[in-house]
Amino acid sequence: MQVLEDKLLIWKLKQGNSDALGRIYHKYKNELLALALALSHDKSSVEDVVHDVFVAFAQAASKLQLRTSLKNYLMTSVANRVRSIGRTKAQAEIPLDTVEIAQPDSNQPDRLAISLEEFQMVTSALAQLPYPQREVIVMHLHSGLKFREIADCQGATINTIQSRYRNGLNKLRFLLNGQVKK
Amino acid sequence: MNTNHKIEKLIKDFSKAYKLSASTSEEMDEKILHDALSAYEKSQPTKPAVPQPNIWRIIMKNQIIKFATAAVLIMGILFGINHFFGSSNGTSVAWAQVVEQLNQHEKYKCRQRIFRQKDSEMRLVRTMQVYHLNLSLRRQELEDGTIHIIDMRGTDAITVELYPDKKKAIVTKLLGYGPRKDPDIIDMVKRFEQKSTERLGTKEQNGKILHGFRHQPNKYNDFTVWVDAQTKLPVEIELKHPNLGQTIFMDEFEFDFELDPSAFSTEIPDGYEVETIINDYRKFKPREITAEHLRNWLNHTAYTVDKLPWMEKIITIENLDPLGTRAIVYITGIQSNDGNLILLVQGNYYDMTKMVWIPDQQLVLETPGGIKLYTHPNGAIYAQSFLESFAEANSDFFDINNLSEERFTRMIVMPDETVLGLSANKQISNEKLQELIESLIEIKAN
Questions:
Q1: Inter-chain touch B20–A137, beta carbons under 8 Å
Q2: Based on the domain organization, do A50 and A106 belong to the same domain?
Q3: What ranges do the domains of chain B cover?
Q4: Which residue among A13, A31, A173 sits closest to B19, beta carbon to beta carbon?
């Protein structure tokens, strides 16, 4: 039903119905924001990332030929934008002491499956991964993208992506050694 | 569970926490949607193949988006002044005085001109006088004599467009859209981050010394503000939107202007022809309705079907247009004895004055009584939208899992130019279609 609904929204958009644009934005904005935040750990730039992605999407909407789902397309666009900003800033890896810990909403503790301590621990560990590894892990586990889709997004082979994923997990295991609940 | 699986689970939980906590602000939503819509409108090569009433266009047309722009401007003024007086000369007292002054002048009028870039030069596209009685009620007077009143004070916002030369009025009721006004602007000023501003020096204008400042809070907004040193109030504001190639210029400010309150009335003067548009922003719950209800709510002829032997069950529901127009539509569902579901769609914009694209479609059937049946350019998708909408409203009547690839749509044009959409989940023979459309009967008052 999700895919059907998205196809319908895209169709409406191509027909000139700009109301569909608003519906797509409200449907995916929080997920896009969360992905940008998980990838970049930079609260100051994530709104710009979502802005740029969505404006570019609106600009291309009438000619859009999606080879994947709308959600994956938008997620991939966010990852590309974060990567592009990262390159501009020559931000290969973020030193641990400069990571700003973006915390989950403390008003909703009962809804969270993770404690604040664990949250900070994972944020710090992820921030220490080389960006390509972090991107594969976040896009696969956070956004549910398949390795093939991530390979298309990063312009790499599926073997490279799987290798980055394995290496990233190994590094996380090293960083979180002893801190993961047995 | 091995360690890698535990880490994967931890990352997934971490992601859930992120997803739960990530949310955009209203300001961000407004900014992104505004820019995205502008980009979208610019990218449209031709008019839509199937014109539909469109809330965004209606809003643009009715200047409500300008209301938002004006709100941004006011915030911009204050933000700018926060910088100009708080950061550039370091005297927070002066800044406080300006905020205090503006706080006492909610009512103001100004001239607003909009310039857009065309062929490498800025061209004036609109000039209007804007009268803000407060942040929920304003009047705009355009150069061509058109008057706009925008009243967002009530739960149901209303916009009125008056065309005095044509004695015509368009009233748009936005049900559930209000009340709306700007956020607490003083609070926003206090929270505004200190960033760099550029002093432009002073200039003399009409015997007054004005101090100029330039401030770019982000790449989308470039403010230049000239402030009267005596009154601490803005005299000129220029807001450039570089990405849109647009500049909004405001001057001729008058605070605490005098204007008869009737100038803000949404009552239509006598002798005007009135067109009313209703856009429903309330949470809508579909419901089954009677033929009488349908007749009362349609502003043109309402139809029902005279039950034929192959029709097993007929119901009519009221629902929001699944095509996203915010209009209300009335959908009559007919279950046939061969397992098909046929929908007849009626609505206030279903007439030939609005659906001007229909004659360009293929005429597939014409009855001796003058009823015409046309194709729809995207019939399968139109049918899917309405079948889904119907299934959502009444899953007992139609199960969406039975959505068929055979689904299709035809547009029925009645002799009085009323239009009905006809969608069916499965194919129907032309003979049966003719029998169906000839069974349409006008719902008359009891």
A1: no
A2: no
A3: 55-275, 284-442
A4: A31
- B423 to chain A, closest Cα gap in Å: 16
Domain containing A176 equals 95-182
Rounded Cα distance between B125 and B120, Å, is 15
Low-confidence stretches of chain B (pLDDT < 50) are 1, 46-93, 95, 183-195
Report the CATH number at residue A178: 1.10.10.10
Q: Minimal Cα distance from B382: which residue of A? A: A8
Q: Are residues A113 and A158 in the same domain?
A: yes
CA B418 to CA B278: how far, in whole Å?
19
Smallest CA–CA distance from B389 into chain A, residue:
A5
Cα→Cα distances B386→A27, A115, B408, Å: 20, 45, 11
Distance CA B171, CA B158 (A): 7
Contacts of A112 in chain B (CB under 8 A): 16-17, 20
Supply the pTM of this predicted model. 0.43
Q: What is the domain count for chain A? A: 2
Q: Does domain B55-275 have CATH number 1.10.3210.10?
A: no
Q: Within chain A, how many helices (H) and strands (E) appear?
A: 8, 0
Residue B121 to residue B213: CA distance in whole angstroms? 24
Dump pLDDT digits (tens) for A120-172: 677 778 877 888 888 899 888 888 888 888 888 777 888 889 988 988 888 88
